[in-house]
Design a protein that fits this description.
It contains eight helices and eight strands, in the order ααααββαββαββαβαβ. By secondary structure, the chain is α+β, with helices and mostly antiparallel strands. The strands form two sheets. Strands 3-1-2-8 form a four-stranded antiparallel β-sheet. The chain has a four-stranded antiparallel β-sheet with strand order 5-6-4-7, with helices on both faces.
């Protein structure tokens, strides 16, 4: 199970190195989530999830406030949520989630990023059946036993709790995301190393060095696309 956390850490490190791009994408995601209901995280669960994620990426308050104010305005930008599935080198599997106001732009760009880097797009469902939607919440400064005790006291069911690299990781069903966080917040824990709703692969593959380099280039190309919000895959990334 440790591989899962390694891939999430690698993803966060990549995003931390491209802050302006990450902040812009969070701005869109916050706007879209706020438009789904009230622009108030206490009454809008989708928005609350996005804001919790934004916090772990240190998204500035000014970016968040701007997106929320935009959502409150009368003008409306229409975004569609799209999911693309495909394959990378050596049969590796990739899921791409996008938010776009121009579908005719997004699909060709995603397809090109696959094709130019040894991959190809598949049909809907060709990859996602090998992934599980999962809530992942990580915190520091607590032991596994302490975290399990907190969750038991709050009567919150989770899939697994483990420690890796001095971080305790909780894996749970997506609908338990808020329950897990509330259990921690009720005992004074408000800072999280990670707070994600993600797609975790059921199995991982290891690529030879040449294919690994090509795969990483493909992932970078996909994540560089303006409309792409998340990229998930089943390749074990090197430490």
């Amino acid at each position: 199970m440790g591989r899962k956390w390694n891939n999430i850490k690698e993803k966060k490190a990549s995003k931390d190195a491209n802050t302006s791009r990450v902040y812009a994408k969070f701005g869109v995601e916050i706007y879209v989530a706020a438009k789904k209901g009230e622009p108030d995280p206490e009454s809008n669960r989708a928005l609350k999830v996005v804001l919790e994620r934004a916090k772990t990426y240190n998204v500035p308050k000014s970016i968040i406030d701007r997106a929320l104010e935009k959502a409150k305005g009368s003008a409306e930008e229409n975004y569609e949520e799209l999911r693309y599935e495909g394959f990378g080198p050596n049969g590796s599997m990739v899921i791409v989630d996008a938010l776009t106001n121009n579908v005719n732009r997004t699909a060709p760009e995603v397809r090109s990023a696959f094709n130019k880097n040894g991959g190809n797009m598949g049909v809907s469902g060709s990859v996602s059946y090998m992934f599980d939607s999962t809530a992942v919440i990580g915190l520091e400064g607590k032991s596994v036993d302490e975290v399990i005790e907190i969750l038991l006291e709050a009567d919150v069911d989770v899939r697994d709790v483990l420690e890796e690299d001095e971080t305790v990781i909780v894996y749970a069903e997506p609908d338990q995301f808020h329950a897990v966080q509330e259990a921690f917040k009720n005992v004074g824990i408000t800072e999280f190393a990670v707070a994600e709703l993600t797609m975790l692969p059921q199995t991982y593959v290891t690529l030879p060095p040449d294919a690994q380099a090509q795969f990483e280039k493909m992932i970078d190309a996909l994540e560089d696309l303006e409309d792409v919000q998340q990229v998930y895959h089943n390749v074990e990334m090197p430490d």
